[in-house]
Amino acid sequence: MATTPQEITQLLAKWSSGDKTALDELIPLVYPELRRLARAYMGRENAGHTLQTSALINEAYLRLVNQQDVDWQNRSHFFAVSAQVMRHILVDHARKYRYEKRGGGAEHVVVDDVSVMCEERAAELIALDDALNRLAGIDPRKSQIVELRFFGGLTVEETADVLKLAPITIMREWRAAKAWLGREVNP
């Protein structure tokens, strides 16, 4: 039997109210969508990236479970926050890679443990994150649309549902945000 968005919303509300058993019921229901989000993120990374899809999901899960005082509005809100959490995990990973690449915190490592993220990809991800943060200061809604569409892998309709906007508005703002980010990242 398929799970409805309302059932997920009810479990999120119970979990927000402190019902830990609701979390146990919720995770198997949202895991496939979390996996889809993680695959969307990881699909943009280089082959051989040491941060695997399952590791991204697990780290996101830990961060989501440890969120305090979140009043989950609905399923869409949960996945929007999940997308944001995954974005931060990837950016943190890229920043750590660049830090280590430059010798910071140098220590002896086994060759198998070396990250396969390329310098160029790490720099692009950090530049995009920086530009997205600047966009958030100018136009938070456009920034949120980029985060949901690009980092979260949400469709236009899903993004419209999360932000409670018309799909045509999402498309218009998505195009404008991409153009703005393109100018910022590639001046």
Describe the structure concisely for a colleague.
With 187 residues, the chain is mostly helical. Helix content is 72%, strand content 0%.
Average pLDDT, rounded to a whole number, is 77
The shape, in one word, is globular
Overall number of structural domains: 1
Give the structural class.
mainly alpha
Number of strands: 0
Distance between the termini: 51 Å
Tell me the helix content.
over 70%
Count of DSSP helices? 8
Low-confidence segments:
102-117
Following the backbone from N to C, one meets helices and strands in this order, namely: HHHHHHHH
Rg (CA only): 18 Å
Biggest sheet character = none
Topology of this structure?
Blueprint: H1 5-16, H2 20-42, H3 53-65, H4 75-101, H5 119-138, H6 140-151, H7 156-163, H8 167-185
Helix pairs in contact: 1-2, 2-3, 2-4, 3-4, 4-5, 5-6, 5-8, 6-8, 7-8
Main features:
0% strand; 187 residues; globular; 8 helices
Question: What does the model show?
Answer:
This protein has 187 residues and is an all-alpha fold. The chain has one domain (5-185). It is built from 8 helices and no strands. Helix 2 (20-42) crosses helix 4 (75-101), helix 3 packs across helix 4 and helix 5 crosses helix 8 (167-185). The radius of gyration is 18 Å and the shape is globular. 30% of the residues are buried.
